Amino acid sequence: MNQNYEKLKQYVDKAAALGAALSLFGWDNETLAPKNSMEKTSKLVGILSSEYFNTIINDEVEQLLKELKVDNTLEEVEKAVVRCFAEDIDSLKTIPPQDFVAYSELTSKASSIWANARVENNFKLFEPVLAEIIEYNKKFAGTQAKDGQKIYDVKLDEYEKSFHITDLDEFFNQLKDTIVPLLKKIKEKEGFIKSDFLFKHYDIEKQKKFNHWITEYMGFDYSRGVLGESEHPFTTNLHREDVRMTTYYFENNLESAIFSSIHECGHALYEQGIDDKYAMTPVGQGASCATHESQSRFFENIIGRSRSFWVPIYDKLVELFPENLSDVTLDDFVKAINRVHADEIRTEADELTYCLHIMVRYEIEKKIFEENYPIDKLPQLWNQLYEEYLGVIPANDSIGILQDVHWSGGMFGYFPSYALGNAFSAQIYNQMKKDINVNKLLEEGNIKEIVQYLNTHVHQYGRSKTAKQILFDVTGEEFNPKYYIEYLTEKYSTLYEL
Amino acid sequence: MNQNYEKLKQYVDKAAALGAALSLFGWDNETLAPKNSMEKTSKLVGILSSEYFNTIINDEVEQLLKELKVDNTLEEVEKAVVRCFAEDIDSLKTIPPQDFVAYSELTSKASSIWANARVENNFKLFEPVLAEIIEYNKKFAGTQAKDGQKIYDVKLDEYEKSFHITDLDEFFNQLKDTIVPLLKKIKEKEGFIKSDFLFKHYDIEKQKKFNHWITEYMGFDYSRGVLGESEHPFTTNLHREDVRMTTYYFENNLESAIFSSIHECGHALYEQGIDDKYAMTPVGQGASCATHESQSRFFENIIGRSRSFWVPIYDKLVELFPENLSDVTLDDFVKAINRVHADEIRTEADELTYCLHIMVRYEIEKKIFEENYPIDKLPQLWNQLYEEYLGVIPANDSIGILQDVHWSGGMFGYFPSYALGNAFSAQIYNQMKKDINVNKLLEEGNIKEIVQYLNTHVHQYGRSKTAKQILFDVTGEEFNPKYYIEYLTEKYSTLYEL
User: What is the value of ipTM here, to two decimals?
Assistant: First the structure.
């Protein structure tokens, strides 16, 4: 083995070990840790985090990477490790060392100020700290911007490399032109689809059984993973043989846990499917946020809300809950889980309106960074855009501009990756349908063939390919939002008989 | 703050963070981790362990400790931290650096060889590796022995400072003289106590509810801890605000989970009761193995198997399981949970015979280290001692000499601390009865006063006092096994009407 690489590998291994420890603490905190443990645990986690930071950011690693980046003797996996490790370091370095402490303290403080402002339903409480965070982010991005690069493009690059304002403007303009009018027509047909049976009493132990079963049915390997419970469902992993997802059960809601589980299972199948040769290195993870989201959304919506998916398994659900479902037909069930309900809250959005929520945030972030939009006018702008795109004005700021945690942590430029993920999934689906008979496989209960297709074309590569490259290699073309828009238009016009 | 101490504190903090991470991985491995995760996880844990090792064993720490040990300006907590940190380092150093890798590989290999030998019921498979481990331990202990110190005394010191062969010989001789003949008489009254109702069908969900309730009743603070499940019950912690215990539920055994929970709760109450000023330092843990065991055994046996304990709560158990217990009186129940059943397996032993199991191991270890007893003759010796002390000859080596994991990990000298813990608990109980009305408090449902007594006299000090010192400060005398022997003799003579 290359001597420089061998030295670097020591750091990569230590970072993997500390990273896994931090993931385990994160998982534990959301699923099990006793409520009064946090103060002390967060001190310990802080020490491990700074140890992680020092492991990857130091002079020896910098020197090694400098030499290894131009070293032609490296093997394929080694090259990928060098590239991804360097990217991780760059992304940790977006905050200049001299601002690191002040900014960390600010965002840490901001998260509780935001939480309080949301409870108090008072944007004014959050406004000053939000303004400060925005100033810092403008400053940081300004320092990094190369050759007249736009500030917001720098922020976008942090989360989804090479998807910029020009791409997103085109994407969202198409959405605006098609989905907004479509939604207007659908809203006129309120009550067209019945869904009350989804909100009867559903025994939680039985729900657990079904959610475990359905994720296993999808191909989640329980010898290499866990399904837990947490208030906000998420997926994490210690490495590819230990992938952990959570869901949350409501006693009066059948669909919430199921579609959370299916969504998280999409993430988890991605992690379990990454080639073992990348395991426990920075290459052994999803290619990007949007690529990860493309997998979770694909299973949640395109597959999980399709009629074909439920054909072989709906009876199983009826058997578990005959008291609620025995006179609900498969078609009525599928309609109900696809009903459109344009509400104010992003995390509860249906498939059709989800991207409109993101569009609101994208436009606001762009105005903040590119037009220096006044912070005190943001709530008004928020409500105006919600009315325009979703036809709904949030009753108050708690369920309006204060609903998401992201901005309090300085995560500007993150939201668009959710929307891109949806669009990626439709573009991949368009190609997949040409290669395999998706509906037939689903109706035969053979969903694992579909997972296999994604393993082959997406999952196995981990981060060794970029998101753009994966998309191009699977579909033979660059990112193209038209597939997503066509998919939504066709599906929802048919569903609502428009 | 003292400058040297401040520097040392950095290492102490980092060791606490890595230690907590290792504890969390340990907990997770026993309670939740998917079965195929171990290979990769153990690599990551290995990296964190060696990071822990390097954090506490290095030249700067050595130099700092040298100066701090003679620094008179330190405050009380700082002094205790320095002493305990130095002790931890010494105990990690019992293996000389040049043998470390070879010995670690040997014990790691030995554990699976032992497991296989146990399954195959073939001591010969384990014998060579056991012999090698013993040779290493003789060598290590020989290097450390000071001024003609006996080799086995060095090993005993590793687990329970200052309890040596002379102390243990006296202790076990007294046991031999009193408990062995007492057991003989009890065995003649086989069938005197009925206990079949304990082994009917007990719904596990209901058992869980009761075990959660009873540990909370004992004073376990669930805002600072967790009760989980694992095959082998244990207690661990990340720090004093996050103490975790486990139990294991059998569908056909009521007492197993309850007494495991009560036992682990004894350990957990100790951890939760240590003064906050020692938290996240090497002082913030139990004073010694035996002191810890004194707390768990005290609650499991002296309290948990007493009639007074069950007076206010037995009805609750009957209410949960009326089908099995409604015609079992409190007295019959208490008799059943105290019945003597001299079997071959230590971990299933009753209160009376437990120490006899330890006595067998003590005598064998002494012969190994002090008389160079031939390894191939150990199974024979084991069976002979079981017959002599417990009146039972193990049917085979799997449930004989191969039953415990300890020796495969090189843990010689550890077993006696279990027996010492029992004896400590009786000595403390003897004093406690003079200070508070234990039975009255129990009968009034006021067990928390008893926990409070232990908090005040034992728990709060953590490791700032030695085991000997705690025992002396609580009871006003040195270790004295007579209280334990008197307690057992009186309790079991009465129970069996001898």
Answer: 0.93
